[in-house]
Amino acid sequence: MNLAYKRSLSSTVIQITIYGFLAFWALVVVFPMIWVLVSSFKTDQEIFFSPWTPPAKLMWDNFARAWGKANMGRYLFNTLTVNLPAIFFTLLFSAMAGYVLARYTFPGNRLIFYAFLGGMLFPVMLALVPLFFLLQSLKIIDSHFGLILVYIAYSLPFTVFFMTGFFKTLPTELLEAAIIDGANHYQLFFQIVIPLAQNGLVSMGIFNFLGMWNQYILPLVLLTSSAKYVLSQGLAFLAHQQRYQSDWSGLFAAITIVMLPTLIVYIIFQNQIQRGLTVGALKG
Amino acid sequence: MYKHKYRVIIPFLAPAVILYLVFVIYPYGRSMYNSLTSWKGVSANQPFVGLANYVRMINDEFFWNALKHNLGYLIFIPIVTISLSLFLAFMINQRIRFSKLFRVTFFFPQVISIISVGVLWSYIYHPTVGILTSLGKALRMEPFFQLFGFEGIPVWMGDPRTVRYAIAAVVIWQAAGFYMVLFLAAMEAIPQSFYEAAIIDGANRWHQFWHVTLPLLWDTMQTALVFAGLGAFDMFAITRVMVISGSSTGRPADVLATYLYEQAFEASRFGYATAIAVALFVLMLTLSVFTMRVTRREAVEY
Question: What is the pLDDT of residues B218-230, one digit of tens each?
């Protein structure tokens, strides 16, 4: 047995170990999701008595019940009603503030920048009680409008911090050329700066979208009537009810409805989304 | 270069600054004051009680119960998550086939919302329909669990002995892919020539990992530790959703965040709840500063 053979044998063993472990973890990650997906097409009896076999017949009715009777359709609509404007204005306000903080010198510039930076140190839990009473006295408690304002405000610290850093790296020459051509400040910002900032805005858009999609504590405290619930809150509410009603197939269909959209979007835009989600840790 | 610059500065800053002052700065400041009152939320006046809420907290066994659970998570979750994700990243970085596929798959749990993750797993742990129980029965695992004093397959979410491990496992399951992507990004930035030099010196894969990769990942490791540690102090969404959808026991799963939510919005003890929130904040801040200090070393430049 020569040395080269020994070495190739040990490297084969290493290869098998590596693939074995990676495949095992892939199974651990994917299996629960597939189990829910498959179960969401079963009847309650099949879920109860034969957890390991595929459904005899695809029960699309589970999805109809989850969407209609269990209100998942409404919750999805509510979520988009809140998240889309919240993201749009988060990006707009953060880009405006970040641009000014990066490009203009004025007294108080550093103070404002560090005030935004400091906001990242505080846990939302600390603000919860006063926030509830503030929204109550402003008469925007239990309203999507109030939740939108709160989402924007809590997305600002990191987004402003990120956009300020981003605008600092933009080349000055292009902006100076535009000013010489007679562009005013607003034309400069909306026609030159924003298009140049596209990559940064996309990363921040993804980061904030998934953050808001995940958000649970804020809607739980600020939206009290069930007709206004957002998706995460609605699913938790439904799961709680199902403990006493046992419409498992409907619940599994509801989980699938919440799980699949972001998963599909992720599979299409994986690189941007991995970058957008980890940007918080890489920059901070 | 810029004429009339305040005509830009003021309107551009105003929306962000106003929203931030009203909805972020004001509530945080207000909390510090509220924690010194015995406010119940109904009356307009907030009786000032000084440090009474904090005294009550120190004597509250449920506060310590919740804090103890947070500290348990703080030790357990970061160590397991970071070792696992580092291991996964290292293996994927071995220029193997399908590395892209593994990388994409391991990140899946990160893009589904924490609430669907929580509901999904509370059904995996479910004593009658859950696959974990039927898997345990199929593999005849009962005697194994009896060794540990269980009567059969544990009722994962219903048993005070297992409920926190069950929740921690879900957090690790979800977070491993996230930290793996962080570590992979850092590993890919290490110049190939470092490894070539190590191989010439006779280093095998493990030596390369311990003496080249790991020292150069230190900054990322620090970030990961702070993130995972802060996560262990939060745990609100996952604990709450898993308890309401699958557990018969509340207190054994309590963490500070769920306990303060309960005190505020279910028991209307707003002053007391805010004092717990202040304690939580101080703990999180201490943890961040401590982790940064302890892990600070000479940065390795390359």
Answer: 888 988 998 999 9
**Alpha-carbon distance B112 to nearest alpha carbon in chain A (angstroms):** 5
Q: Kindly provide the ipTM of the predicted complex, given to two decimals.
A: 0.89
Q: How many residues does chain B have?
A: 302
CA B147 to chain A, closest CA, distance in angstroms equals: 25
Is A111 at the interface with chain B, CB within 8 A? Answer: no
> What is d(CA A124, CA B237) in angstroms, rounded to the nearest whole number?
12
Tell me: pLDDT of A127 over 90.
yes
Q: Residue B48 — φ and ψ, nearest 5°?
A: -75, 125
CB within 8 Å of chain A, chain B residues 154-183: 173, 176-178, 181-182
Closest CA to A163 of A113, A205, A201, A219: A201
Distance CA A72, CA A241 (A): 14
Q: What is the mean pLDDT of residues A105-116?
A: 93
Measure A214 CA to nearest chain B CA, in Å: 5
Burial class (CB in 10 A: 0-12, 13-18, 19+), B242: buried
Distance CA A74, CA A78 (A): 6
Q: pLDDT at residue A266 above 80? A: yes
